[in-house]
Design goal:
Elements lengths: L1 H19 L10 E5 L10 H10 L4 E5 L2 E7 L1
Antiparallel strand pairs: 1-3, 2-3
């Protein structure tokens, strides 16, 4: 009976962590992104992407899956 109590407690703790882990409040704003219209080739450096996005009027740019995404806060 003692091992069943231990496993019940462990299960209860695990479920508690699982249920309460989704209640995280995001402090940062959401980002809207669109692929760059001028970036040529595969994107490897965020700085290069950000420079091209700045020339397109976007405040930020990042590489994502080898493409340059221009971003701004929504």
């Amino acid at each position: 009976m003692g091992s069943m109590n231990k496993s019940s407690v462990v299960l209860l703790l695990f479920l508690s962590l699982f249920l309460f882990s989704g209640n995280v409040v995001e402090v940062e704003g959401a980002w809207c992104a669109t692929p760059s219209g001028r970036f040529a080739g595969a994107c490897f450096r965020n700085a290069n992407c950000a420079n091209v996005c700045a020339s397109e009027g976007w405040p930020s740019g990042i590489c994502d899956s080898y493409r340059c995404l221009c971003r701004r806060e929504c």
